[in-house]
Amino acid sequence: MNYRLPIIILTALVLLTGCSQKAQQAPAGEQSESKEAKALLQGIWLDAETEEVSLSVKGDTIFYSDSTSMPAYFKIVGDSLVFASGTKYGIVKQTEHLFWFKNQNGDVVKLKKSDNPDDVHFIHDAPPVLTYTHQVKKDSAINYNGERYHWYVAINPTKYKVVKRSYNEDGVEVENVYYDNIMHISVYHGAKCLYSSDFRKQQYSKYVPKSFLEEAVLGNMEYDRADAQGLHFRATLCIPDGASCYLVDTTIDYKGQMSMKTIEY
């Protein structure tokens, strides 16, 4: 009787199982996160030249000294600092007390770890979400072609968050968060309601590029004029704290129909 065959089969199964487990643990071409490098990065870091607090690292999160910037999740893979957005920064030098990396412009940002007890007061809480506008109600009566019309506009802040991505003084990607708004327009002809509806920024997607709209807020709705086409209102869509805006004409005609067109950029 051949006792060697079962032993050979059992050995082959063990080897195959081991290879399978190794393949699951370390996929080909994929680098694992460096826990040692992340451990070295824990603490409060200063600008090496100005010695001002630049950022704080706690666990897998970076907190910035700028109170308007949101905390950023990160990991260190190979020789790169990698953010959750996928943005990578090449690490030039890392020791227990030094951390140098290249920013988005290729400049080397040099940080040193703080040993000042006063710096422990660095706040780790997320900054408050910035409110771009307050609630506003506006209305007026107009006469056009012998007829009396009354319009009403309400600007209503919401809890819908708009994320704006930019770069801080170190050339590092940061995220600021703002609240969006909902606009309401009502138009009456005497006691008859011709039109009444809410407006959200998504309704302007045909008139504003998608990439711009994602970071913009519907910041304002202003009455403009009345003419043969109807009552005109100007919707303003802007990237917060920036000069870039789109103005979209929102017209309510005398039959209660709404139309839009871009005014200017």
Shape: elongated
Question: Approximately what portion of the residues adopt beta-strand conformation?
Answer: over 45%
Radius of gyration: 29 Å
- Count, helices: 3
- The residue fraction in helices comes out at 10-25%
- Derived from helix and strand composition plus strand pairing, the structural class reads mainly beta
Q: What's the rounded overall pLDDT mean? A: 84
What's the order of the H and E elements?
A: HHEEEEEEEEEEEEHEEEE
- Span between N and C termini? 89 Å
Q: How many β-strand stretches?
A: 16
How can the largest sheet be summarized? 8 strands, antiparallel, barrel
Low-confidence segments, given as residue ranges, are: 1-29
General description of the model:
- The chain is mainly β and 265 residues long.
- The protein has three helices and 16 strands.
- Strands 1-2-3-4-5-6-7-8 form an eight-stranded antiparallel beta barrel. Strands 9-10-11-12 form a four-stranded antiparallel beta sheet, with no helix packed on it.
- The N terminus is likely disordered.
Could you name the key traits of this structure?
265 residues; mainly beta; eight-stranded antiparallel beta barrel; four-stranded antiparallel beta sheet; elongated
